[in-house]
C-alpha cells in the first residue's frame, strides 16, 4: 500500500493508504480511512467518482460471521458480494466497508449471540436499548464519502434506517436500491423479522427484472421443513416435457425449462443445505450446481458416485462451493485421493441394489448437518428416492415441449394398480415464464413450520 495525504478535517477519518484490489467482480481501488476512535474503514472505489453525483454506493456494516465465514444465519456475505458485483457491473461506485458496525453496532460478541442464541430476532436480541437497539452511527461513513468526493448516492441497501442515518450526516441519498437475497432455512426467520420489525425492504426479495412476473416465495416451493432424525428433509425437483421426459433419447436436457424456471431452481438451491445428483447426470450434463442466477448462498453439492467416475475436470468440483462425493468403500484409492486433492470430501456408503444405499447416504448427510436436501435427478436417482419412500416434497416443472421417446423421469416402482401409487397431497401451482411448476407434498410427510 502506498501512503496517501491526510484529510484536513481533524475529527473526520483520515485517509491512510490506498491499494488496488482485484476481486472476482472487477478491480477496485481501496482507500483505507482511520478514525479518531481507532477504526479503519475501507472504501472500495470502482471507476471515476467524477462530479460525485448519483454514485451507486453500498455502506456495508462489517459482519465477521457472514462476510468472512460465510455464515448462513444472516445474508451479509451474500449482500456484500452482490454489492461488489452490482457496482462493478455499473463501472462506477463505492462499496464502503464500515469497521465497528457489527451486529448493528453492538460488536462481535452480540453478533454471535444474535447468530447462535436468540437467532431469529435481530431486534429482541440486542442487549442495549436504543432506536430498535441499533447503535450504528453514520458520521464516519458520511465523512469518508465526502472525502472521496461523493455528493449524492443511490444507496444499495434494504434498510431505510441506513438511508436516514446517512442523511442525518449530510449525505444526499437519492434513492434506496434494494439488494434482494434468497433466504435459506437458517436465515429465513431473521430476514422476516428484519422486514416486519425494522421495515427492511424485500429482505427475502428478488430482482424484479430477472424473475418471473408473479413473485414466488421460494419457501413456499420448498415447503415446511420435516424434521427427521436420520435423514434430511428431501425435496425432489425435476423439469419434464409435457410428454413426461427429462431428457431426449440422446440424454440431452439443455434446456427443457425456460430461464425463469431455472432461476427458481437456483433460488431453491439457495434455500437448501445441499443439492444432490447421481453420477449419470454429472457425466451427461456436467452441472455446476451452484447458485448463480439469483443472489444467494450455494449449498453443499453431493454426488452419488459408487465407483468415483466423477471427472477431475467436473464443474461440480469448482471451488465456489463445497462438494461431497459418496462412493463405495472399495472405490479406487487413487481416484479418491485425486478427488480429495481437487477439493472434494469423499465418504463411503454401503452398496445397495441401485448403486449406493439411499438410506445410508441420507443418514450420512444428516450426520454432517444437512437438514434440507434438494435432489435434482436424474432418472435413476429420482426412482431410487421415490422407491425408498424418502421424498417429502415433489416439484415437477412442466415445459411446453413434446419430444417423444426419451429419458423418463421415473422408472419402475413396482406399482400394478393406480390405487397403489405414491399419493401426493397439498397441491399448488406456480407459473414461471412458459413453464408450469406443480408442487406436492408426499402423503405421510409431516411438516413443521419453518
Ligand atoms: N430434466 C431434468 O430435470 C433433469 C435433471 C437431472 C438429470 N436429467 C437427465 O437425466 C439423465 C441422467 O439420468 P441417470 O438416471 O443416468 O442419472 P442419475 O440418476 O443422475 O445417476 C444415476 C447414477 O447414480 C449412481 N447412483 C449411486 N447410487 C444410486 C442409487 N441409490 N440410485 C440411483 N443411482 C445411484 C449410479 O451410478 P454408479 O453406479 O456409478 O454409482 C447411477 O447410475 C441425463 O440425460 C440428464 O440430462 C434431467
Tell me the number of structural domains. Answer: 2
CATH class descriptor name of the largest domain: Alpha Beta
Which regions are unreliable across 5 or more consecutive residues at pLDDT < 50?
Answer: 1-7, 122-131, 203-214
How is the largest sheet built, in terms of strand order? 14-13-12-11-17-9-18-21-20
What value does the average pLDDT take?
Answer: 88
The backbone outline, from C-alpha atoms, is: elongated
Describe this structure in words.
The chain has 450 residues and is of the alpha/beta class. The protein folds into two domains: 2-198, 3-Layer(aba) Sandwich (Rossmann fold); 218-442, Dihydrofolate Reductase, subunit A, CATH 3.40.430. The protein contains 13 helices and 21 strands. The protein has helices at 64-68, 76-90, 102-105, 108-117, 139-148, 160-168, 188-198, 218-222, 259-271, 279-285, 333-341, 358-367, 379-387; strands spanning 2-3, 14-23, 26-34, 40-46, 55-61, 93-98, 152-156, 172-177, 233-241, 245-248, 274-278, 300-304, 323-327, 345-348, 351-352, 355-356, 372-375, 393-399, 406-408, 424-432, 435-442. The protein has a nine-stranded mixed beta sheet. It has an eight-stranded mixed beta sheet with strand order 1-2-3-4-6-5-7-8, sandwiched between helices. A two-stranded antiparallel sheet has the order 10-19. It is elongated. It binds NADP nicotinamide-adenine-dinucleotide phosphate. NADP nicotinamide-adenine-dinucleotide phosphate binds next to strand 9, strand 10, strand 11, helix 10 and strand 16. Residues 238-239, 246-247, 251, 253, 256, 277-281, 284-285, 304-307, 309, 352, 354-356, 358, 376-381, 384, 407 line the site of NADP nicotinamide-adenine-dinucleotide phosphate.
